[in-house]
Amino acid sequence: MAQSSTTKQGSYVLSIGIIGALFFIFGFITWLNGTLIPFLQTACELNAFEASLVILAFYIAYFVMALPSSFVLKKVGYKNGMSLGLLVMSIGALIFIPAAYSRMFGVFLTGLFIMGTGLALLQTASNPYITIIGPRESAAARISIMGICNKMAGFISPLILSALVMHGMEKFKDENLKLLDEVAKMEALNELASRLVPPYIIIAIALFLLAIMIKLSPLPDTIDVEEHEDESLMGFIRQIPGALKIPHMLLGVIALFVYVGVEVMAGDSISQFGRNLHLDYASTLTSFTMAFMVAGYILGIISIPKYISQSQALRVSAILGAIFAVGAIYSNPNDTSYFTSSLGWLNSLSFINIPMLPNPVFFIALLGLANALMWPAIWPLVLQDLGKFTKVASALLIMGIAGGALIPPTYIKLSMAIGYQNALWIMVPIYLFILYYAIWGYKIRKAK
User: Fold this and answer.
1) Sign of the C-alpha dihedral computed for residues 443, 62, 388 and 16 taken in this order
2) Residuewise pLDDT in 10s, the chain (448 residues)
3) What is d(CA 42, CA 172) in angstroms, rounded to the nearest whole number?
4) Which of 82, 107, 207, 437 is such that its CA lies 20 to 30 A from the CA of 189?
């Protein structure tokens, strides 16, 4: 009996470790977009809205592929599905090679969509897996651990890609490119775009090797979820109307949709906000948001469920989100006093040299702290007591990630009309709706 318990515990820890590695991959790939946006805006000669289509192409794959992914997982199993997702992502990374050499933005978007497709498959498998494999009341803590893996990768990846492709950007500024004749300008931009080739070859190889490792791993291929009598793709689709009649699930999917939108705004669109302020380090601003998200996840691990419940954590997060959004709207972009007074002391350490963020940028980065616990709190609140609808609800939650495809480009389009700070008002009603879900919405178990 003791040996069986030890074996079970070992399998549990190993499963957590493997899923944690996958969440690291999610973060590394996902949060490269914050650096890609300003890079491709220059290399492909795009305006701010066109560059924001990087986000749309990547995140819309979740909406398109979530239900097919659930069907694939039913056919091939969770472990094989994860391996397949990594292979699909590897193919998407390879498409960056012809995209870079041709400087065709549409080819870049195709590669991003394919990478998003692979991630949709991975997310569809791993999120319910990490929620269900342990005690329900500690699900948010487990997802918080996964979030640290995800956001630590998100902290690292923009710094790495910026170091590889964004060096010497002075000669690629608009005022300098205008001094070149057409041939010299094309040569300069071709040289810039080609910088993406080596890193994405490495990414493709790494994803391929990880796919093989997952395939050969002892990760369990099934999880204990109540099955529906019809597990075909059409069966999944037929379940959707019934699932959407469950109020707390429908409201939860909407909450996750809008939450992902503001998370991606804080993580990726912050680079365009910084570019609008002419900050030389705009391409690395995603790392600041990710650093605050890591801090938020650590707080979640410590406090949930020991000190606060998942719903209470969501309430606090939504309130902080609204406060930080208003702070970003009304603070002075020419003033760095908030960052200097709170974190400026870090530069006294000999091994740290960080720029002093303008106040609005600092508040946007702080949204990482507010957003951190929303994903791990929303998932278990939505999946609670769903029984046979658990799988379709998981797929609908993955579809909700499409909020990251629609809300940030909407923000950028609005920014071009009324300014980057005023457009941040789009965030405030989103956080208020999430607050509503955290207080009342998740409790509505039956339609009236």
Assistant:
1) negative
2) 444 555 556 566 777 777 788 888 878 888 888 889 989 998 999 998 999 999 999 999 988 887 787 778 778 877 888 889 999 999 999 999 999 999 999 999 999 999 999 988 887 777 666 766 666 666 666 777 787 888 788 889 888 988 888 888 878 887 888 888 888 889 999 999 999 999 999 999 999 998 998 888 777 666 555 554 555 666 667 778 877 888 889 999 999 999 999 999 998 888 889 988 988 888 889 889 988 988 988 888 888 777 888 889 999 999 999 999 999 999 999 999 999 998 888 777 766 778 889 999 999 999 999 999 898 889 888 888 787 787 788 778 888 889 999 999 999 999 999 999 999 999 999 999 999 999 998 888 765 4
3) 7
4) 207
Q: Which of 210, 217, 151 is nearest to 16 (CA)?
A: 217
CA distance 398 to 382: 12
Q: How far is CA 259 from the centre of its chain?
A: 11
pTM of the model: 0.84
Residue listed under structure tokens 């010497």:
168
Q: Tokens standing for 274?
A: 């910084």
- Could you give the CA distance from residue 46 to residue 36 in angstroms, rounded to a whole number? 12
Q: Look up residue 230 and give its DSSP letter.
A: -
The helix, strand and coil proportions of the chain, stated in percent and rounded to the nearest 5, come to: 80, 0, 20
Q: Pick from 402, 413, 430: which is nearest to 55 by CA?
A: 402
> Quick check: 116 and 26 in contact, CB under 8 A?
no
For the chain, which domains are there? Answer: 8-218+231-443 (1.20.1250.20)
The three-class DSSP label of residue 2 is: helix
Q: Quick one: which of 184, 136, 91, 130 has its CA closest to 176?
A: 184
- The number of residues in the chain equals 448
